[in-house]
Design brief:
By secondary structure, the protein is mostly helical. The protein has helices at 9-29, 34-50, 56-63, 70-75, 79-97, 100-118, 136-150. It has one domain (4-150).
Length: 151
């Protein structure tokens, strides 16, 4: 089993921001719905806190208040690319130091946060009628996140 103690402060910070970055990537891929998407992401964190004991690493991860340095992302010139780079770094860290079950749990959690953001509200339509559950831009962001998690 892997725990927070297996990582230095910078590595842990990178791991802790990974799920939130994935959600932010989806939120920023398409306009609108930021409040709903943020609420949906927080529900994934709350559900993970409720299922304490299933994975020690995730227990510690969801106990760490998620934070993202948005100024750093904006300063990069291409926030989407910066998110991808940071997410790749997180996957690399967990892949290098994490037990296989912890790596899988981390990747599932990251994807769950991103998926929740994508499904938070319908795209298009009129007054909630019609529309698609996930926009093309959000689906593209989810596909990009899946690709990063699979490498």
């Amino acid at each position: 089993m892997t725990s927070k103690a297996d990582f230095n402060a910078e590595e842990w910070s990178t791991l802790a921001e990974g799920p939130l970055l994935a959600g932010v990537r989806v939120v920023k891929s398409d306009r609108g719905g930021t409040i709903r998407e943020s609420f949906a992401m927080s529900k994934v964190y709350a559900a993970a806190r409720q299922s304490q004991g299933e994975n020690a690493l995730l227990d510690e991860l969801v106990a760490t208040p998620p934070a993202v340095d948005t100024q750093k992302l904006q300063a990069s010139g291409d926030p989407a690319a910066a998110v991808g780079e940071r997410l790749r770094a997180a996957v690399g860290i967990i892949g290098e130091k994490g037990a296989p079950e912890d790596v899988d749990a981390y990747k599932r959690f990251v994807l769950a946060v991103a998926q929740a953001a994508a499904e938070a509200h319908k795209e298009g339509g009129f007054v909630g009628i019609g529309g698609k559950p996930i926009s093309e831009q959000e689906q593209a962001a989810l596909d990009e996140i899946r690709t990063i998690l699979e490498t």
